[in-house]
Task: inverse folding
């Protein structure tokens, strides 16, 4: 059983020359880092003291490079694909909303820029707020009145065509 080691301690052992190589070991769901420190093997742990699992070999390689190791082995013989964490749908939803907000911001700024350009050229028309609001009220009242005058069509139950035969026969 390898002894645990945190990244700072691994960095110190590498700088002192006690660790010359390490192994990125494939396991179920990810990769762990095992350092050869003389006669003992050390496994990299997180700050809580749990074995640090990496989702990809790339992240494990970056961690070893930050520790100062440039030589290491990769053993994927025991690797089994899997997820380290549950998918975060809230993050993708938040990113989608942020993207939509950015798209709206760009559209809005383009409209403002166009209005300012028209103003500079003297082709813009100005409308009083009260007049615009009155037009909105009139248009809304007209739509409501039209909707109230239109007959409401009740949906009839769907009738199956049987061609003179009884159903189920």
Result:
């Amino acid at each position: 059983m390898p002894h645990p080691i945190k990244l700072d301690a691994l960095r110190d052992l590498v700088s002192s020359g006690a660790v010359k190589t390490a192994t990125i070991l494939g396991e179920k769901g990810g990769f762990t880092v095992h350092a050869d420190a003389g006669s003992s093997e050390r496994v990299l742990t997180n700050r809580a003291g749990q074995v640090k699992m990496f989702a990809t070999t790339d992240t494990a390689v970056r961690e070893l490079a930050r520790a100062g190791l440039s030589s290491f082995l990769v053993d994927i013989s025991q690797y089994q694909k899997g997820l380290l964490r549950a998918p975060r749908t809230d993050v993708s939803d938040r990113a989608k909303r942020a993207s939509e907000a950015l798209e709206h911001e760009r559209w809005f700024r383009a409209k403002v820029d166009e209005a300012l350009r028209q103003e500079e050229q003297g082709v813009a028309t100005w409308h009083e707020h009260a007049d615009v609001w009155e037009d909105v009220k009139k248009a809304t009242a007209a739509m409501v009145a039209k909707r109230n005058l239109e007959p409401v069509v009740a949906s009839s139950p769907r009738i199956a065509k049987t061609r003179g035969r009884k159903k189920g026969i």
